[in-house]
Specification:
Elements lengths: L5 E3 L4 H9 L4 H7 L13 E3 H15 L4 H7 L7 H7 L5 H15 L3 E8 L2 E8 L8 H19 L7 E5 L16 E6 L2 E6 L22 H6 L6 H12 L7 H7 L4 H10 L4 H17 L6 H7 L5 H12 L3 H8 L1
Parallel strand pairs: 5-6
Antiparallel strand pairs: 1-2, 3-4, 4-7, 5-7
Helix pairs in contact: 4-7, 9-12, 13-14
């Protein structure tokens, strides 16, 4: 089974910021994908990639902007991309940046795959997203195109235009009207999106103030790695469910859809693992509760809300059923 593609909540920040600039109804758009603005308060938390993709698609349809994803990506500096951005900001050259991205993107977004392909005196920067085949994901592909074009322009200048690009998914004729692609050959229906650039650009400086230290030495790297999206299906399933807990008990249909499965198939996989869906929810809630209860500065009310309980008494009863003691007693025993 494939893992559920998960992405850091920080990936939504530039999207929400742009929508706020143009006056879009952000709360309503987030509600459509079962999220609230509070999700941005925890930028390193994991969310389903399909939710972020749906946010851009819904906003593009609402605003009538066929190139919305590109416009957002184009104005998003790499260094603003949460913890990943702070690590990338210490890269010396464009080559250093792209190679670091190749290694770290999976820790930020398990559904995004990037690579550098060499072709004589040119190179192609390629990006592909694991997204459901049903429905349109055009805006996500456009966002990636704009984001990486913005990164390349840090070294080649703000007016640099690629001679060729590839776009994953259906063609987008509206790109032809954008000045960024004047005289650019655009190939649609490609297996991945890609930007062609001169090979000589790779050795140009990206950040003149960077030290160029190995990214693994960055003070944020260890925590970033430990909280990364899982690489196994059931682990990613639990991470996905945990991400949805603050919004109540996750609907099995939503979880199945994000898993790329029917409800019946998801239930069958859970049965094979000796679980029911309700048992999975209990398991994730208990593990999260234990992690939070071991932090003495986290109040019991905050723990209850994090697990999707609006009434702390319901949380206390559930925890006693799981552990045989109340949350307060557990904290005294294991704090």
């Amino acid at each position: 089974m494939k893992v559920i593609p998960l992405v850091r909540a920080s990936a939504l920040s530039p999207i929400v910021g742009f929508l706020d600039q143009i006056g879009s109804p952000i709360d309503r758009l987030l509600e459509q994908i079962s999220l609230t603005p509070a999700v941005l308060d925890h930028p390193d938390n994991l969310l389903p990639l399909h939710q972020g993709s749906a946010l851009i698609e819904n906003a593009a349809n609402l605003e009538g902007l066929k190139t919305l994803g590109f416009l957002i990506g184009r104005q998003t500096p790499t260094f603003t991309l949460g913890t990943l951005g702070t690590i990338l900001n210490n890269c010396l050259t464009l080559f250093d940046l792209l190679m670091t991205m190749e290694q770290l993107v999976r820790l930020d977004n398990s559904g995004e795959h990037v690579s550098l392909r060499w072709e004589n005196d040119s190179v192609w920067w390629q990006v592909h997203y694991d997204l459901p085949t049903q429905g349109s994901n055009l805006q996500t592909h456009l966002y990636g195109l704009g984001l990486y074009l913005s990164a390349v322009r840090v070294v080649l200048g703000p007016t640099w235009r690629p001679t060729e690009i590839h776009l994953e998914g259906p063609p987008c004729r509206s790109l032809l009207a954008i000045d960024d692609f004047a005289d650019t050959t655009i190939h649609g229906m490609s297996s991945c999106s890609a930007i062609k650039m001169p090979r000589a650009a790779l050795s140009l400086p990206y950040n003149s103030l960077a030290t160029g230290d190995d990214f693994s030495l960055h003070p944020a790297y260890e925590g970033f790695q430990k909280s990364a999206p899982a690489s196994a299906f059931f682990d990613s399933l639990q991470q996905f469910v945990q991400a949805l807990l603050p919004y109540g008990s996750p609907n099995i249909a939503l979880v199945a859809a994000a898993s790329g499965l029917s409800v019946r198939s998801l239930q069958r996989h859970l049965t094979e693992a000796g679980l029911t869906y309700s048992k999975l929810i209990d398991q994730v809630r208990f593990n999260r509760a234990v992690a939070l209860l071991r932090k003495p500065d986290v109040k019991l009310l905050e723990v209850a809300l994090e697990l999707g309980y609006t009434d702390p008494a319901n949380f206390a009863r559930a925890f006693r059923r799981w552990a045989g003691v109340s949350p307060r007693e557990y904290r005294l025993l294991h704090g």
